[in-house]
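Minutes, project huddle
Topic: does the predicted pose make sense with 2-phosphoglycolic acid bound?
PN asked that the exact inputs be recorded in the minutes so nobody has to dig through chat later. Recorded below.
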Amino acid sequence: MVRPLIAGNWKMNGLGRDLAEARAVAASLAETPAESRVAICPPATLLARMAEALSGSSVLLGGQDCHAEPSGAFTGDISAEMLADAGARLVIVGHSERRAGHGETDAMVAAKAAAAVRAGLQPIVCVGESRAQRDAGQTLEVIRRQVAGSIPPGMAEGGFALAYEPIWAIGAGATPTPDEIAAGAAALRQSLIDCAGAAGRTAPILYGGSVKPDNAAQILKLPEIGGALVGGASLKAADFLAIIRAQA
Ligand code: PGA
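Predicted holo structure (tokens), as shared on screen:
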């Protein structure tokens, strides 16, 4: 049985003073451990201070993106090796905000996921359909294609997670119905098995997109859903902890 993963994606939010929220999450989990693994992915400027704030706690540190190369002339980019060196254990790759805002293709995402593995990090590979694709009935076809293109060959068991994040649900306060999430997750499981074999059978599938304290329990108990990728609601300890505690 693979432990679920609840990962907080702080996106471009968080200053030094916000480390108090992460400390509060760590303190609560020290008192009452969670069923799931818990991670926080802060902006790069906070990685080192977050590593210090979380040191000795069960909360894992994650990056939000990485470059495919280990080092070099790539101004503004951060390599997977640098994230690992800063104390990260995971990294989000292929988030829809990177795909849309930075032109990341499936092939680029696969290269980043492979870089993460090379550096000893667990990539959380993101896929998800747009509103137009859903309205055109293309959801399952789109996310299957994204998985096939974004998961590099040779992934090991326990080596990665997949996040299913319908783009139109992110930061929107709207989510697909439980049946729609379950249908997406079932299709994704099959695609994962097709492209990664045994590793695809056990990789956690996280749901992301407007996960909140009041919908988390219902989402987290769906078949094939092995956790959540949480944006806005991960910024405040009380909300993030309520989501973490919703994992039965
Ligand atoms: P949200 O973001 O929870 O704020 O919708 C999720 C994500 O983009 O990972």
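Observations noted during the meeting:
- The longest strand covers residues 122-127.
- The chain has a mean pLDDT of 97.
No decisions taken; revisit at the next huddle.
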